[in-house]
Design a protein that fits this description.
The chain is of the alpha/beta class. The chain has 3 domains: about 100 residues, no CATH class; about 140 residues, Rossmann fold (3-Layer(aba) Sandwich); about 55 residues, no CATH class. The strands form 4 sheets. Strands 8-7-9-10-11 form a 5-stranded parallel β-sheet, sandwiched between helices. Strands 2-5-3-4 form a 4-stranded antiparallel β-sheet. Strand 7, helix 5 and strand 8 form a beta-alpha-beta unit. The radius of gyration is 25 Å and the shape is elongated.
Length: about 325
């Protein structure tokens, strides 16, 4: 559901739910255009296999479109106001449709905040259907992104995932109960925060039921639950506002978690790549903390860390 609806979908239209969602996506992609001709609206119904069940009627019923009639002189373009007498041969009936539904905030934010591409991180064993439904809704609205799946283990998949995660401006965590126990989900979570993406937490279970969720994440990025009566509340997710980018202290905490996943030789190699090897002194046990202190001293250094960190080393 890409628009806030004034009414629930009547039962008789349930058979064309997918086509209604596709029509909503077309309207959402054209936003802020709000006036459509009769021909443009009819195109939304093209190919409908149920001629007696209209997509247009459904959009009217749920308050996304409003039908407007008026009279216009085709020669002069002059329109008559309501209540005036008119000659039907001179002033022809013209029908237009106005978009009255309100686009979901999340869709708008992705565009206005230039927050795409997105990356959806989830555990396949606990959130596959929910991740897919959110991904489909965003894709239908023309928002580009990547759906992370922690089942395949082939190297090409890992490379694609690493590339998409590094490029993501928004990282969406679908938090099932054991999300924070899954190694790949942990990496995706930590890198999203450390790399300065907007991180959106979508809970499928109460916060207290999340296993091994780190305290620094709990204190820094809001968790909201979208699981009502055994059903994923996609409409409420799409109505969210995107969060701000994490502050530097939170980025540093997530970056330190990533560094701790490296061996001593990998820490030395990363420090060399980042051009700070000479500043990494003291005992090896202190190198991880020292590297985090240096690279998250300011946002420019933190951004450099995100670009140079080798995700494949810990994926």
């Amino acid at each position: 559901m890409l628009f806030q609806r004034s009414s629930a979908l009547p039962l008789e239209y349930s058979i064309i739910t997918k086509r209604i969602e596709q029509a909503e996506a077309v309207i959402a992609m054209a936003w802020p255009k709000i006036v459509y001709s009769q021909e443009e609206v009819q195109a939304l119904d093209a190919g409908n296999p149920y001629p007696n069940i209209s997509v247009i009627d459904a959009l009217l019923a749920i308050g996304i479109l409003e039908r407007c009639e008026y009279r216009r002189n085709p020669d002069t373009g002059f329109h008559l106001d309501d209540g005036f007498d008119f000659d039907e041969d001179t002033y022809l009936l013209e029908v237009k449709y106005k978009v009255t539904g309100i686009p979901m905030s999340l869709i708008n934010d992705f565009r206005t905040l230039k927050a795409e591409p997105y990356f959806i991180s989830f555990h396949s064993g606990g959130a596959l259907a929910e991740a897919q439904s959110l991904h489909t809704a965003l894709q239908s609205a023309g928002i580009k992104g990547f759906l992370s799946d922690d089942l395949p283990n082939g190297a090409p998949w890992k490379q694609d995932a690493a590339y998409a995660l590094r490029a993501a401006k928004t990282v969406i965590l679908i938090e099932s109960e054991i999300y924070h126990q899954r190694p790949r989900c942990i990496v995706e979570r930590n890198f999203g925060v450390a790399n300065g993406a907007r991180v959106l937490r979508i809970g499928l279970t109460p916060r207290g039921d999340l296993k091994d969720c780190p305290a620094w994440l709990e204190g820094g990025i809001q968790h909201q639950i979208f699981w009502n009566g055994g059903v994923f509340d996609l409409g409420s997710v799409l109505a969210l506002k995107l969060p701000n980018i994490a502050n530097l202290a939170l980025r540093k905490r997530a970056g330190l978690e990533l560094i701790r996943g490296l061996s001593e030789s990998e820490v030395r190699s990363l420090a060399t790549t980042l051009g700070v090897r000479g500043q990494i002194t003291g005992e090896p046990d202190d190198w991880q903390n020292r590297l985090a202190e240096i690279m998250f001293g300011n946002n420019v250094k933190a951004d450099q860390f995100g670009q140079e960190f080798d995700l494949l080393a810990i994926f």
